[in-house]
Design goal:
Jelly Rolls, 9% helix, mainly beta, 6-stranded mixed β-sheet, flat, binds 2-acetamido-2-deoxy-beta-D-glucopyranose
Length: 844
Amino acid sequence: MQNSSKHVAVKSLICYSLVFCIVCAGQNSGPICNGRGYKKEGSSKCTCENPLPQIGTFGYSGPDCNMRIFGAAADGNDMTQGCKSSGCDTLHPDEWMCYSVPFASNSHGTAWNYLTVQLNRLSEDEAGDPDLYGMFYGGTDAKELDTATFGYDFRETSSSSHESVVKKVKKSDISATFDHQGVYLCVKAYGEANLTYSLRATVSQCSADFTRAGEQLLCSSPLHAPASEQRYSQCLSDGTCACKPPYNKPVEDVYPLLGFEDCSAKTEDITAAQLSLKKPYIKEHEELTPKAWSFYGFEVTPDDYQVVIDVSTEVNGEDDACAGDGYFGLFAKFGKPPGWRYGEWDFRPDWDYFGAEDNELEIRFDATKEAWQTGRWFVGVNGDDAHTCNYTLSISKYNCPMNCSNRGNCISAANGTRTCDCFKGFFGEDCSNEAEHLQYGVPVTKAAASFEYDFFQLPEISPAMLTHSVEVRVRASFSSDGYGEWAAARPELLLLKGDLHSEPHTANYTFKQVLQQQNTTYEIDLCPSQLKQGVWRAAMYNPMRMYKLAYNLTTVKEGRCLNNCTGHGTCSDDAVCHCLDNWTGGDCSVYARGGSCSPGSRKPTLMPEAHGTCWHECRCDASGNCAYSENECADFTCESALWRRKGTTNACVQDKCKQDVWEETDSHSCLKRCECPADGSACAPAKTCDAAHFACKAGWRRFSDGQAKCFQPGCQAGSLQEAVGRSVANGQAYALCTCTGEEREDKPLCTAESTAEAAVVVACSEGYVLQGASTVPGSGVRVGGSCAKAGRTRHVAATVFLHIFEILLSGTAGAALLWLYENRFRRSTVNAALYHELSMDTGF
Ligand SMILES: *[C@@H]1O[C@H](CO)[C@@H](O)[C@H](O)[C@H]1NC(C)=O
Ligand SMILES: *[C@@H]1O[C@H](CO)[C@@H](O)[C@H](O)[C@H]1NC(C)=O
Ligand SMILES: *[C@@H]1O[C@H](CO)[C@@H](O)[C@H](O)[C@H]1NC(C)=O
Ligand SMILES: *[C@@H]1O[C@H](CO)[C@@H](O)[C@H](O)[C@H]1NC(C)=O
Ligand SMILES: *[C@@H]1O[C@H](CO)[C@@H](O)[C@H](O)[C@H]1NC(C)=O
Ligand SMILES: *[C@@H]1O[C@H](CO)[C@@H](O)[C@H](O)[C@H]1NC(C)=O
Ligand SMILES: *[C@@H]1O[C@H](CO)[C@@H](O)[C@H](O)[C@H]1NC(C)=O
Ligand SMILES: *[C@@H]1O[C@H](CO)[C@@H](O)[C@H](O)[C@H]1NC(C)=O
Ligand SMILES: *[C@@H]1O[C@H](CO)[C@@H](O)[C@H](O)[C@H]1NC(C)=O
């Protein structure tokens, strides 16, 4: 800190002495104070003539009285008009021209809050660089003009890049106790070029401005426009513009300097009818004046998942000043209009998302982002600082990433995540990806373009490629202006084995090749057996998608033939030798005169439908004429180890099993023999189980005739079970277990059906007796009936006992009692006396 301030002090000392020397030199060579003033006794400074000239007259100022001053009014007219004849509108390099502008001269009286100055460069060929310096005069802290550029109250020096600049000075920003009487406005020709300019000023109660053409605006409305065309209803005495919709604040608390102060910002309310999941909001020909803001408010609802906002400059002809990106700012914020300062926006374009065209800005955000909220959002578009440009805005809301690119269905999970189920042929998070199908030997050449991933699908692998010695190579080369030596990142060629939904990615690939140098071919070698399963996709990856990349991509297959066809033939890309005339054999090593063949040599014919190759043998007849036996295969080989020759036939089969298999079902486990038919047909597991290796599972029993099948025995024959869903007044219903006697796989042998009246046994409660029951012929079991109030003499327990005894009598029902004893009485409602009687009297 100390060091640097010392440094500044030394520097200014040098500067001052330099100025002093120049002043000395001037004094020695010309008249004192350029003949426009005098020096007071003992002062080194000039007192110049008429430093506050009346409107329309000249005066002088500056240390040497070398700065001309012209008296002009802040009425919004070009101040050079009054002094043009004296050349005040044309300045040579480093020349100054000042204007003295008394505040009393404005047309709005003295109650003003804003001073607005416009400096336009009028020189041809955009030459000249006028700088504006302003200094207030009068009042208690008045200073004097100087050709040194420090000490001024305000300045505007950006005009080299702007043909027209407007400087706004707010009185309250200058000083709380403003008592100045006017302002000097000075123009300096900076740089090497001569300069022509115009200069306008106005003082006003509310914020004022000038159009490029010099028309005065108040609260962003033409000064003399009829009230209906004005953006404000009133200019309040504190300097606030009372803006009319749509120029008013959309919410009370807005960030400062977005244009709600001077009605230059516009807000449009987008309704649910204009923007929904079904319909994007698109607005064309939106005009934006330099630095102005346009805001758009819209609702985000719980149904929405993603919002995508695009702004593109409308290009009008080849050399439209607004073409290209960078002419707008784009921001989005929840709850209030966004500003460009940090913290005043939630989202702005992610430079990773480059639009298809250079003139596009895009914001994408979705429910996975921390700043996501449902409610009112605002989009702000901020104009370029020099040009009025038109743009097209589009806002889309989607329920899934990018609406699944209209190539898939949106799946919404219970936890709120949304995923796309892409239609066939499309993949990627938003189904935007598509793989171009490659063909062997057909190069794909892509012109320079901005992209991140381009996807391709490798060609199919034919059976011939698997049986022969064939290599597959994927080759790529690239060129790009963006990948200089400095660039650490390089394009990559990626291969991934996956399924129809998978895409190669830098984080997920099977093979990768980095393309180090431009215009150099890199390749990945594969053998077909690697490729025979799954879907193989290739991707060209551009790590710096802002740089356009051109590339070539080719897949080739290369055959490797036996003995390289012995030099007597050419090797096809499927690794088959095509022999020259008079040569034959698999490797063209056999010389066969006159088209005939040498005995014993063989010639292959591919038979894809039989999954094999037929080998024809050269046979000779008695007179020595040799030829391949075209209709006969001396041997037949199958296309891969997956296939086996079917006996001695000319066909190959695929076996379904290689060994016996264990079968597990709900009812049994068993061994099924792998059966291979004598004719050589494909082996397959036997249809039925091997009886010697067969076991029924728990709860199942094997068929009594020894068949390898199981049945369920069901309930104990003659036992009673609670009759579900049946109620008997004053008693309990039991279903009788009856058996069909027929062992079946699909139905238990014995069942207790409570639906049939004829199979329900009724036990009556204490004090009730069974009436109307019928006896099952041949068994003595009484079924059906109802319970009636018992007479005094007969004890109910005895009744039940008798009834049960009757069951007991029927030989088939012996076990019923056991069941009743075990499952029912032990823990149930029937009284202990009955239990006692039963156990005593029946001997159980
Ligand atoms: C500026 O104008 C003067 C004459 O007014 C001329 O002599 C000079 O060459 C011009 N300079 C440039 C850089 O054009
Ligand atoms: C999103 O896709 C659905 C159906 O695919 C379509 O009806 C809807 O209009 C699309 N939404 C937008 C904003 O394009
Ligand atoms: C810009 O939009 C305005 C209307 O908003 C239209 O009058 C003007 O012609 C447009 N300019 C261009 C260059 O498209
Ligand atoms: C939400 O559910 C989906 C599928 O049900 C699951 O794949 C995903 O991981 C879950 N996400 C979170 C954040 O729990
Ligand atoms: C693509 O291949 C063509 C023809 O071989 C060649 O002229 C071109 O330079 C290649 N382009 C790239 C980007 O490698
Ligand atoms: C990589 O791709 C494979 C094949 O599609 C897929 O199964 C796997 O989940 C992917 N892995 C990652 C980390 O994305
Ligand atoms: C690569 O080739 C292209 C076209 O053939 C050429 O324009 C480019 O300059 C070359 N790049 C390098 C680095 O040699
Ligand atoms: C195979 O033979 C061909 C011509 O018959 C020749 O061009 C090629 O270089 C040979 N390849 C090898 C590996 O010898
Ligand atoms: C093939 O053999 C025939 C008969 O001997 C002969 O006429 C012909 O020139 C030979 N062809 C070549 C290419 O050697």
